[in-house]
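Today's session is about reading a structure prediction critically. Students often jump straight to the picture, but the first step is always the sequence itself: look for stretches that repeat, for charged clusters, for runs of hydrophobic residues. Only then move on to the predicted structure, which in these notes is written as discrete structure tokens rather than atom positions. Here is the chain we will use throughout the hour.
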Amino acid sequence: MSSGQPQPSQQGEPIRLTPEQLERFRQQTAEEIEQLSDLLRQLRVANNKFVDSKHSVELMGKDKEGVRFFRSSSSIQQQ
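Below is the predicted structure for this chain, in token form.
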């Protein structure tokens, strides 16, 4: 095991890790969990912004006196 990598095992046999390899695996797993947790937080923030924006657009659509917009091929124009 001089390469620092776990040795392949026979099918059905557990992989044997040195304490150093096990610690590296634990650290890598902890880092990946932290990265995924951060990405999940960012996704939740983006989702909340989307929901807020969607709600605002829905409210604008219900406003009878509000200005309606339509999209042309060159820009957004007021009706």
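Discussion point for the tutorial: The chain has one domain: 19-78.
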